[in-house]
Amino acid sequence: MATKRLRDTRNYSENVRNSILDRRETSLFKKAEELSILCDVEVAIIIFRLGKIQPITWKSTILAQDVLTRYLSFIEVKRLEKLVTHEDYLQKKVDKKEEQISKLEKMNEAKEMEILFNQLVEGKSIDELDAREMKGLLKVFAAKLAKLDERKKELNQPPNPPSNK
């Protein structure tokens, strides 16, 4: 069942905020359990609450200390090797989307030029075109000319004689 997302919890009473935090902790612990089972890794969660001396740990305090100690015992370079910050993750997503947008823009440009080429064949005046359209048409003409030359070469080749095997 889907739960409502609360945007701003500052206006709620302390009890309401604590109950929201408790539900989110439970959800986080469930996800950590699934992650540890599916990926066969050790997961530890340590949560520090404001005003509380003892942190909340998952699965147990001893396991959390053990995992944290082993993590901190690695050389810092080795620890940071696979570390992905949220900013890096989002930047990769943005770069990927920009690449997709760029590809779509190029495809759109090619289709526009193809339509424009067909309009010129049907009788549209070339005087109405701007510089961008002229450049695009030159590319279309070059591509069509290359296809024509390739087709000419195919047609001018002598047919292969049948073998007597």
From TrEMBL:
Coiled coil, from the record: 87-114
Keyword Hydrolase set for record: no
Chief location of this protein within or outside the cell: nucleus
Record's keyword terms, sorted: Coiled coil, DNA-binding, Nucleus, Transcription, Transcription regulation
Domain of life: Eukaryota
SMART domains in alphabetical order: MADS
Entry-linked SUPFAM superfamilies: SRF-like (SSF55455)
GO BP terms, alphabetized: regulation of transcription by RNA polymerase II
Cell compartments where the protein resides: Nucleus
Any one GO CC term of the record: nucleus
Domain spans labelled MADS-box: 1-48
TM annotation in the entry: none
Pfam entry (one): SRF-TF
Name of the protein described by the UniProt record: Type I MADS box transcription factor
The species this protein was found in: Solanum tuberosum
